[in-house]
Write a structure and sequence with these properties.
elongated; 9% strand; 3 strands; mainly alpha; 107 residues; 5 helices; single chain; 3-stranded antiparallel sheet
Length: 107
């Protein structure tokens, strides 16, 4: 198997050269990237809403985890208006964080 070619992203090639990835690790990277790409495509075509309500984010990812991301500034909240408006979380932002963490755990 050749490591040269347009299909190898530079960061991944550097990682391969430095610290050969196992097949499982490479599979995880490709799977997470493909799932994130599918979510982005669904959002851009209007099949998925671009924002999650804070309550839905708590349900999907856990209240403690969301609050930790908000407190550290890694995740930002958008508001529709004044102080009484609903809080929304960008779906792409939270998905990228969650999937990036999953890749990091595998490496």
């Amino acid at each position: 198997m050749s490591l040269r070619g347009p299909w190898w992203p530079p960061f991944l090639l550097a990682q391969l050269m430095e610290n050969l990835l196992s097949a499982h690790q490479l599979r995880t990277i490709v799977r997470q990237a493909a799932e994130l790409g599918a979510i982005i495509a669904l959002i851009r075509t209007g099949k998925l809403p671009p924002y999650l309500k804070k309550r839905e984010a708590y349900r999907r990812y856990g209240r403690r985890y969301i609050e930790q991301l908000l407190a550290s500034g890694e995740l930002s909240i958008r508001s529709d208006g004044n102080n009484s408006a609903a809080w929304r979380i960008d779906r792409i932002e939270i998905e990228a964080i969650v999937r990036g963490l999953e890749i990091w755990r595998q490496l």
